[in-house]
Design a protein that fits this description.
There is one protein chain. It contains two helices and six strands; from the N terminus they run E-H-E-E-H-E-E-E. By secondary structure, it is an alpha+beta fold. It has a single domain, classed as 2-Layer Sandwich (Alpha-Beta Plaits).
Length: about 110
């Protein structure tokens, strides 16, 4: 099974439309749109899981750059989610771990 990232979707797209778009290229296990946690509105991207790697590769080749709803889709193999919040800072919280360096939290 292969997970596919689908970006630049219309904010009006539905999961059923996403599934239907990919079913033309093989068996779709799931189709999920990313939504805003607070508002529930679509965020313009989603993920599709396809049963076979060959079908997924065919869908990626056929749909990457395809015009759907007036937008050029970005379709590629999904990358694993990275842990953390992007900075790699393990200290967390913005505090300076009790040090009194006097330089705004920077070590001297």
């Amino acid at each position: 099974m292969k997970k596919i990232y689908v970006g630049n979707l219309s904010f009006d797209a539905s999961e059923d439309e996403l599934r239907h778009l990919f079913e033309a290229h093989g068996a779709v296990e799931s189709a999920k749109l990313a939504t805003d946690r607070d508002t529930g509105r679509a965020r313009g991207f989603g993920f599709v899981e396809m049963a076979s790697d060959s079908e997924a590769n065919a869908a990626i080749a056929a749909l990457n750059g395809a015009q759907v709803g007036g937008r050029a889709l970005v379709v590629n193999e999904a990358r694993p989610k990275t842990s953390g919040f992007g900075g790699g800072n393990s200290r967390g919280g913005g505090r300076d771990s009790g040090r009194r360096s006097g330089g705004g939290g920077r070590d001297r």
